[in-house]
Amino acid sequence: MSDRLLTASAALAEALIEEMTRDERIFILGEDLTAHAGIFGQFKGIPEKFPGRILDTPISETCIAGCGVGAALTGMRPIVDFHFSDFVTCGMDELCNQAAKIRYMFGGQVKLPLVVWCPDGAGLRAAAQHSQSLEAWFVHTPGLKVVVPSEAADVKGLMKASIRDDNPVMFFQHKRLFRREGPVPEDPDFVIPLGKAAVKREGRDVSLFTYGSGYFLCQEAAAELAREGIEAEIVDLRTLKPLDFETVAASLRKTYRAVIVHEACLTGGFGAELAARIQAELFDFLDAPVLRVAAKDVPIPFSPPLEDFVLPRAADVVAAARSVCNR
Amino acid sequence: MAIEIAVPKLGLTMEEAVLVAWKAAPGARVRKDDIVLVLETDKVTFEMPSPGEGLLHPLVPPGSRIAVGQVVGYLAADAAELARLAAEHPAAAAAAEPTAAGRPAAAAEAPPAAPGPAPGRVKASPAARAIARAHGIELAGVAGSGPGGRIVRADVLAALERPRPAPAAPFAAASPLTVLEDIPITGVRRAIFRNMQASLATQAQITLHTEASAEALLRLRRRRKEAGAPVSYNAVFVQAIARALRRHPRINASVEGDRIRVWREIHVGVAMDFGGGLFVPKVRHAEAKTLTEIEDELRRLAEAGRAGRLTLDEMSLGTFTLTNLGAWGVDRFTPIVNPPESAILGVGRIEEKAVAAGGEVRVEPRVALSLTFDHRIIDGAAGAAFLQTVSRFVEEPALML
After folding, report:
1. Three-state SS for B355?
2. Fewer Cβ neighbours under 10 Å: the N or C end of chain B?
């Protein structure tokens, strides 16, 4: 079956429609869903197609997350929409103390098939409280899976895998990438398993490990680097937990140099975790220090020039790659 | 009573080490278990704790090669004893300057091993260290091109390729002979040096010679060329070896301790020389590869070799070696086994010869095949049978199918 160009939004809607058609236990819960098909129009077609299975809630993330946990415990397969990923703070107890731990604390007697859909990321001039990338918080919480797709096809394939998973999955989708088009397979059985990274560009000189919006920075950087004779390999991690370290290792064994790229701020970010594992497990394959490219450690500014200044750019990736390649 | 500082044995096979640096200045007080010096063997870097407390009197300069058990310095109980030690055991001129304190000391008496030897901690990337360790290269002799002079992987690969300027030969002054070129035994040469010596020192090697008709071989090459899919002689030999090893699995073996290990995998190494020394990259699982696959692999390895990009992975873990000197016009020779392998096939040139058969003399291209093997574990008849199989496969490649 062929691929069509779809926006990331449309890819998400297609995944949801296919899965909701397949399994009637799946439903969506969140704010402003039916009137606008989600604030980004990401659920287009779903309110009409599945009346009663996409529900509006009061403005209370605590309530939304709590409902999701309860519904999942009692046999449903809910998807909760957090509106902006920044609002997870209001649902932290439900997500981190309940959802993440229940299956463990009850000795596996219950499952918790919950997808927490979190539109995240900066670049929309939405200021500090609506622009964060918070995936590292959840990577740090045992019991949760963490997915951060980049391209439209990844959104679709990973969303389907997340829905089918019997564990709570934090699904971070970048707001600025909703309208970005990409080829998406038509096959309704197209599912990208959680925990599988993808080598999206092969190269011999440096490995760029990235996910989410960072992938597009790396793409741009790799093109620039190629003009300078540096062939970068891009590994889109796609799932941060479980992490596909085998693919990371295979790439590093080839290039001996690593740059980690993410939009989340530097300190305590996922790059720190990955760099730590690389040095511990692949020490003899390092020809240069592992470098990280990330946002600066400040709240995302409202001022457009300042926001642009704080966020990582392709030029930063190029500079880091040059540095590890000793150029 | 002065305390001796002697080099400890850090591993079962360790015989010598390089004293990379002293961590305290001459005369300085060192407490028990303080790090007093740094050793580097071909396997590890070791920071040696002081065996006791006292004033340091080093005997050998950083950069010295020292034997296990050798006394390299003393710890004096007090200044008087230090003075006495200094008189009794004069330190080498520059056994001085702890390198932690800043600029590395120039080891004046130590042979200048290479451009810019930096006694003390050598800055090198982990990957560079891993490769150097595997090839027995002294990192102190490699110039670093990375940030702040750090030795990176490319530097070690380059060092493996080229001979480096030599230390002044110790006997040069006394010898009536004049040194034209002085080549340090390091890097690739050192690896070859050790391996070849280990080969003859540990194995009981015997060589059997035979000669095969090369008619079919030439025909095969011609036809493949006409078909636009040329193959090298070596590709055919690798295939013949691999298929023959499958019939004679016990040739594909190594000695480990008091066991003979017969290997399931057949990884045939092919000796290649790119001008910087001998390399033996392996064709992995050669028994499962088609002739075309073997040819492609050999081409890839040769290209990688010429570009200096052969990886350690590509050169380790062989189970048999092919060496072909036919291109140099050699008739036949007695190759030396590449340990821990137990056999090697040497191939000579293809030459037309008069062959008497069935009462007639006719001219036929012939090629000499020489099998050297470890007679400790492979009996003469077994070796001969293997060689015969190889020879038949060369004479009639179709038999390999």
Report:
1. strand
2. C
Taking contacts as CB-CB distances below 8 angstroms, the residues of chain A near B153 are 256, 287
What is the count of residue pairs from A and B with beta carbons less than 8 Å apart? 28
Taking only the tens place, the pLDDT of each residue in B300-315 is: 999 988 887 887 778 8
Which class is domain B3-96?
A: mainly beta
CB B369 within 8 A of CB B390: yes
Mean pLDDT (chain B, rounded): 84
pLDDT band at B119 (very low <50, low <70, confident <90, very high): very low
Q: What is the pLDDT of residue B20?
A: 82
Percent of chain A with pLDDT over 70: 99
* Alpha carbon of A229: minimum distance to chain B alpha carbons (Å): 16
**Peptide linkage before B176 cis (omega within 30 of 0):** no
Identify the three-state secondary structure at position B195: helix
Q: Does A283 touch chain B (CB under 8 A)?
A: yes
Give yes or no: A174 in active site.
no
Nearest CA in chain A to B145: A326
Strand partners, B367: B212, B350
Place of tokens 């890839």: B300
Q: Is the dihedral of CA B121, B126, B130, B131 positive or negative?
A: negative
The domains of chain B are located at 3-96, 187-400
Q: Which residues of A touch B139 (CB under 8 A)?
A: none
Our answer to whether residue A262 is catalytic in this structure is: no
**Cβ within 8 Å, pair A287-B153:** yes
ipTM over 0.85: no
pTM exceeding 0.80: no
Record: fold of B187-400: Chloramphenicol Acetyltransferase (3.30.559)
Q: Which residue of A has its CA nearest to B150?
A: A288
How far apart are the C-alpha atoms of A277 and B128, rounded to whole Å? 19
Residue whose C-alpha is closest to residue A207's, from A187, A231, A239: A231
The helix (H) or strand (E) run that includes residue B65 is strand B64-67
Inter-chain touch B127–A287, beta carbons under 8 Å = yes
**Tokens representing residue A7 in the block:** 């926006």
